[in-house]
Amino acid sequence: MSAILQETSKRADWVLGIDIGGSGSRAALEPVSGGAGGAGGAGAAVGTRHLFEAEPVSISPNGSSALPVIASLIERVRAERPDAALAGVGIGATGLASLVVSPAASLASLSASAGAPVALAIDAVTAHLGALGGSAGAVVAVGTGSIAIGTDFRDVWRRVGGWGHLYDDRGSGAWIGIEGLKAAIQTHDGVTTDAPALLSAAVSRFGPAPTWPSQLYTRDDRGAVLAGFAADVAGLASVGDDVATRIMATAGALVAGTLAAALDPALPARAAGVGGVFASGAAFTAAFAEAFARIAPDATLVEPAGGPLDGAVELARLVAADEVVAAHPPFIWR
Amino acid sequence: MSAILQETSKRADWVLGIDIGGSGSRAALEPVSGGAGGAGGAGAAVGTRHLFEAEPVSISPNGSSALPVIASLIERVRAERPDAALAGVGIGATGLASLVVSPAASLASLSASAGAPVALAIDAVTAHLGALGGSAGAVVAVGTGSIAIGTDFRDVWRRVGGWGHLYDDRGSGAWIGIEGLKAAIQTHDGVTTDAPALLSAAVSRFGPAPTWPSQLYTRDDRGAVLAGFAADVAGLASVGDDVATRIMATAGALVAGTLAAALDPALPARAAGVGGVFASGAAFTAAFAEAFARIAPDATLVEPAGGPLDGAVELARLVAADEVVAAHPPFIWR
């Protein structure tokens, strides 16, 4: 690959990062020289970033639409910016490991279409690259789901969580939504009396309680529907509702436990939390910080340097520079 | 209806009870006189009972197969026992309220096919009729799901639970399975270390942990799959595993709370618990009895007189005797 890069060094001076998500997909085209070089690079080249937006990934009984969405984004960037020859492409996508039959098999065609080497990663890996700028440590990403990755992108790959709302993803948006609905239905049924505001919020969102099962059990995107209710739970916590506050605080503590478990002893004790639930309010963030300090007293919690799109660009730079980003399914495919 | 019964009194001297379940369906044909007459009748006429077995109900995107299964069972009984003219038919079926579009609309054709009046009820109602023999009180039925009904079959109809594994059915087989998988995945991920036996049991049943999501999230019968794992949790509790014992004991206490909440103050304080989870061992039953005595100290817990098929026969007797079994959707359709 180094030989190829040398041959085309005059032209291939752009990198492309792609973030494929459940609520939207984006690509960022940047000069390869702008802020490249590992730690600190992510998010540094926003001034010369060209953004492309695309539809979210959709999940059907036939699988995930991630690969077609990626392919069409690459085509679009190539068509709209024929001058911008690519040195590397980094892609982060949700649900890759469990919902795309063979991520590795599609690399050759994506690479041919891009005219550059491609690395494909699960979104938790690009979240890590964006938050810690390519350096080693642990990052937890908390949106609809919750997953932590502890890695140095070489030898250590520790995954905690991310197994879905049914028996995992503790502290995630879906988890918060489920806990809110549990409190609501128990108040509806007269098992408890302590969550009238959550019951009222659930009725406002979903309608009368007897209609909830037909809305939740029939939908393939029930995790996202549940996570939608998390916004109501967070809103009630922010105005002091007791049960909602307890749910958000428990979520924060659980996420801290997930992050701490990803801090492999072989990694530097640096950690960060990213994702929408970290913007849900003080009940969550205060409990998260308190619990993390208690569980991992020797670790440093850092502010994330960037988001998953920054991480995808960082991955593209690592690929373009031929730095070590080993294939490591089900985390990264090269 | 009384006039019709008098006209046909020489012929219509049989009752038919039908129980449509997720793991099998059954019909019981009995003489109308055998043990009839409300309380104490259920289960009294086993000696003269003729049993018919049929397939379980299946759930597809098109809905439930409950009504076709019921119709074919009635046809079979009529064909095999043309001498047994029916005075009444009582049917209990799982998922009627939420999965059958219009239970009431099918009553006329079922009644024409049976040549007798028909009452159709959710399975929690026939569980109640079987357990308390038609008398008033509260009954909780705990299998894959968990639902309690407090009723006098006239004025009071209180339902608690039964809203499914996602945010309810606390203490049910599905709930126990989820709690077991939560402990297993947290041990797998290194969040905790305390459930190696549950992890080992889950791997034996489902295979390596990374394969669990593709088995659980793609199946329409995930509640039943989860409840299957409850048997492993109960087995580990019976040999003293700490985490499994704690899960089963918590399940028992939650079921007691569900049952107590169904004891409307207007009902006599009599209650019973039925369903497979009550046969899961002492960890569950001891915690259930202890918690119920604490939550509802003035209520009497009675041994169930019979099961849901007995309850369906009881419902058929009430219908045949023209006793008050008012239509009360979504509990009973007449």
From TrEMBL, chains A, B:
ATPase BadF/BadG/BcrA/BcrD type domain segment(s): 16-280
Alphabetical list of Pfam families matching this protein: BcrAD_BadFG
Protein name in UniProt: BadF/BadG/BcrA/BcrD ATPase family protein
SUPFAM superfamilies listed in its UniProt record: Actin-like ATPase domain
Domain of life assignment: Bacteria
Taxon lineage: Bacteria, Bacillati, Actinomycetota, Actinomycetes, Micrococcales
InterPro entries from the UniProt entry: ATPase_BadF, ATPase_NBD, Euk-type_GlcNAc_Kinase
